Amino acid sequence: MKEAGPRVSASEVAAKSPIITLLTDFGNTDYFVGAVKGAILTINPAARIVDITHEIPAHDVAQAAFMLLAACPTFPPGTIHLAVVDPGVGSSRRALLIRARAQYFIGPDNGIFSYVCERPKIGAVEVFHLNKAKYFRQPVSQTFNGRDVFAPVAAALSNGIQPEQLGTRIPDYIRLPSIVPEVSRKGEIKGRIVHIDRFGNCVTNISQAELSAEMIEAGARLIIRGKIVKSFRNFFAEDTATRDELFGIWGSAGFLEIAAANKSAAKLLKAKRGDAVTIART
């Protein structure tokens, strides 16, 4: 029997074939996604490219920020996330590379990286303004920085070029309104819907850091659009003593969701992203 070769660690695999994820609002009917991948592979043919999604609504930076927050914890250290939802392309907005969570994030300075740098508390965040044109694809299109700026920089980073070589360190970046809910002195939690998934589940910005199991056990209630949700479940098909149509549930991204069994909670509530969600304690 042929002996197995030496085991290769995950870090060694990542070093030889780095992961570059893509998250955009480009859709899949045009050439844009393919062109971005081509620009990466021209510089690093060994790159492993993973699509998170290309179906972010056009120009919806906040939606992209949430999707990136939900997806990035599943990837290993050293992953390079290329996120391009860029309504300010061609303007004076900066191009960024951020080092955080032992990963890298590349894209426009418009708030798209707000949530991954804010929640949960993740320690040091290093920000670089990508201003070294020698690493860009030439000529740079003023309407397609995803291909000509961000993709080549991601590929260069995957080839071992250091962030300090790709840009200038800067102290801050554009931020969206905080994803952390407000907690009053009386313990009332004021959150909001940050995402509605394809099943109609309303994902809030409330985590177990604000709403504990003890608070739920003590009778905490959700208030949304004038309705009170007092039932909580561990999974969607759970057989509970209550038959309430709407219930709260901890979703896979770590946030409290408002759901309805085999129905769209968003339609039942006529809810939309941004709607207030309050947790009242009894």
Layout of SSEs?
Elements: H1 10-16, E1 19-24, H2 32-43, E2 48-53, H3 61-71, E3 80-84, E4 95-100, E5 103-108, H4 114-118, E6 126-130, H5 145-158, H6 163-166, E7 167-170, E8 182-183, E9 189-196, E10 202-204, H7 213-217, E11 221-224, E12 227-229, E13 232-233, E14 246-250, E15 256-260, H8 265-269, E16 276-280
Parallel strand pairs: 1-2, 1-3, 3-5, 13-14
Antiparallel strand pairs: 4-5, 4-6, 6-7, 8-9, 9-10, 9-16, 10-15, 11-12, 11-16, 14-15
Helix pairs in contact: 2-5
What does it look like?
- Strand 1 (19-24), helix 2 and strand 2 (48-53) form a beta-alpha-beta unit.
- By secondary structure, the chain is an alpha+beta fold.
- Strands 8, 9, 10, 11, 12, 13, 14, 15 and 16 form a nine-stranded mixed β-sheet that branches.
- Helix 2 (32-43) runs parallel beside helix 5 (145-158).
- It has helices at 10-16, 32-43, 61-71, 114-118, 145-158, 163-166, 213-217, 265-269; strands at 19-24, 48-53, 80-84, 95-100, 103-108, 126-130, 167-170, 182-183, 189-196, 202-204, 221-224, 227-229, 232-233, 246-250, 256-260, 276-280.
- Mean pLDDT is 91; it is low at 1-6.
- Helix content is 22%, strand content 27%.
- The chain is built from eight helices and 16 strands.
- The protein folds into two domains: 10-170, S-adenosyl-l-methionine hydroxide adenosyltransferase, N-terminal (Rossmann fold, 3-Layer(aba) Sandwich); 182-280, Bacterial fluorinating enzyme like (Elongation Factor Tu (Ef-tu), domain 3, Beta Barrel).
CATH topology (fold) name of the largest domain: Rossmann fold
Write down the Rg: 21 Å
What number of structural domains do the residues give? 2
CATH class of the largest domain: Alpha Beta
Could you say which overall geometry the principal axes of the C-alpha atoms support? elongated
Secondary-structure element pattern, one letter each: HEHEHEEEHEHHEEEEHEEEEEHE
Chain-averaged pLDDT: 91
Question: Mind summarizing the main beta sheet?
Answer: 9 strands, mixed
Low-confidence stretches: 1-6
Number of helices: 8
CATH superfamily of the largest domain: S-adenosyl-l-methionine hydroxide adenosyltransferase, N-terminal
Into which percentage range does the β-strand content fall?
A: 25-35%
Q: Per CATH, which architecture of the largest domain? A: 3-Layer(aba) Sandwich
Q: Which percent bin holds the helix content? A: 10-25%
